[in-house]
Amino acid sequence: MGKVTVNVWVDNKLIAQVKAEDLKTTNLINATELSTKGFNITTPENSNLAVDFPVTHLGAAHDWYTYLEPLPVGEHTIRYVNYVRETTLGAGNTINADITYSLYDK
Questions:
Q1: I need a surface site. Which of 3, 74, 91, 103 has the fewest CB within 10 A?
Q2: Cα-Cα-Cα-Cα dihedral sign, residues 53, 54, 55, 59
């Protein structure tokens, strides 16, 4: 994938961080890395992807996860920032995200 940094904050407090380089984790704080074995995936002819005919290829999943303890009742903000500095996917294929969730439980 490339050089990746992921940070997770809960109520403006950094609770998890991943710094990885070429799928070799160099720093993992309060996060878990999970991968699947390879599996076949088929893109059907009528999918939203531009395919001329159904095609089957090998797929897999890999990611890092953070698990939260139950939060106390009230308002909370969860922020997730994923920053890819370099990628092996080719020019223009960086996968960056900055997502904020506002939660309220009464």
A1: 91
A2: positive
pLDDT tens, residue by residue, 69-102 = 899 999 999 999 988 776 555 555 567 889 999 9
Q: List, in order, residues 6 or more apart from 62 with CB less than 8 Å away.
A: 23, 33, 34, 35, 36
Instruction: For residue 7, count other CB atoms closer than 10 A to its CB.
Output: 18
Render pLDDT for 20-76 as a digit per residue (tens, 0 to 9): 876 666 788 999 988 899 999 888 877 776 666 778 889 998 888 999 889 999 999
Structure tokens of 84? 């890819």
Task: Answer whether 7's CB lies under 8 Å from 17's CB.
Answer: yes
Q: Where do the domains of the chain lie? A: 2-31+66-105, 35-62
